[in-house]
Amino acid sequence: MLSLTPYTVNFTNANIRSYYIRPPYVLPWTTPGGAAVLLPQEDALQQMLVEATTLSTYAVARESITVEVQNGSYFDTMETLAASRLNYAGYETVTSPADKRDYTNTVLVDYTTSQDPNQRQTIINVLGTYNANVLALPDPNSKVQYRVIIGANYEACFQPEDLTH
To answer: Which of 39, 59, 68, 69 has the smallest number of Cβ neighbours within 10 A?
Structure first.
């Protein structure tokens, strides 16, 4: 483990990918003795291992994007949950307080000069809040490319395996 220490200097949550060894990578089987086991499906499992150990093109693109997450809902810690979800999908995040805690809908503020609607939609999809209000406020001096203000409509629960790496 100590030999990996030099790699941790620039290592963030956006560099971590998780995989679940579940069907179709394994299939349930009961042994003649009655034990429930999972049998590896060699081709599928090998493909998943190759993907897991190969640098993600999504991660490379997303690591350069910082999303500020603010909690504009009545529910405490929603900004932390949303930031974790964005980290899981490969984005760098920072959290900060919102101006108020009574937003009904989640808001995505785009500070980029490119104003890429596909990138905005990807962030919205990762958050699972498909009806976010979007504000385009290009600012080349902004320290973050996007700000998400979590509203009461935000659903923190999600299936991690559904996120793209």
So the answer is: 39
